[in-house]
Amino acid sequence: MAKVLVVTSGKGGVGKTTSSAALGAALAHGGDKVVVIDFDVGLRNLDLVMGAERRVVFDLINVVQGDAKLNQALIRDKRLENLSLLPASQTRDKDALTEEGVARVLDELRQKFDWIICDSPAGIERGATMAMRHADVAVVVTNPEVSSVRDSDRIIGLLDSKTELAEKGGRIEKHLLLTRYDPVRAERGEMLKVEDVLEILSIPLIGIIPESEEVLRASNVGSPVTLNNPASAPGRAYFDAARRLKGETVELTIPTDKKGLFGKLFGRRAA
Amino acid sequence: MNLLSFFNRRTSAPVARERLQILLAHERGVVGGKPDLVAQLREEILAVVRRHVMVDQDNVQVKMNRDADISTLEIEIEIPAPVAARA
User: Fold this and answer.
1) Which residues of chain A have pLDDT under 50?
2) Which positions in chain B touch A188 (Cβ < 8 Å)?
């Protein structure tokens, strides 16, 4: 049974694309068939982060409008054969995304893949609402910082009211992914703690990705951090989050790159 | 509270937390959650008051004012004069 997962946040620059690529690669590494779709029409970047920027021929809008077949637009990852990418258009307007068109593409993808990961653009306009519209599961990417938490709260409200599932009276499964977390600063009272963000947003936690230079290193070379350095702190944290998405119970820790004091601090479980 | 925060009370994260909690309590009322908080408050307050005094629906005014710094909730209930006093 295919699952449509939206990676969203409201605020830009918090790690949606990084997380979409990393979770997609982690799920594919576990054997699932995964496609990651870039919904950021006009400002695509998933292709670059996944190292496929020179292989883009057709895009999501070509498929939505019937100018290309799905198979022509899908780009298969060179490292993992069961991982694919559907890029966004760089030249078109986001209004070219029609609800029916997107629904048709997603239905076709449901036949071929186990996970359809929709990488949402920032904001709450058309691209973002289209990315979440048909989702079964949402990962809300949040930084421990006031503007990000506020925007996430807004997005949670939209997930509960503007998605197809919500309109039918259902409840979309929502998970918090806390990124760029620095446990040392949080402990010093310089950064919102995991508990603070959880209390404010009150959705279950799927993972904590520690702030790490490995994330930039991976995007520099065009590889999801879970493939570029699976043993790194963010790599391990994303692998754990992917296992929780699959329903496994994985003890919640904050991995560290160095032998740190705080790595084993949180023995809590993800809900 | 641990030793560190005892000696260093001017940490910024608790401020962030408090500001967010106040802000989001407002925004949720407007955007998602409860679309008509005032109407709901009005009903519930009226129900409580009616347990003790009979008041007319029209004699209850609930106003909420939201400003940048403070918000106020104003409740005005007109209670009919006791029967004895009228005579």
Assistant:
1) 260, 263, 267-271
2) 4, 8, 11
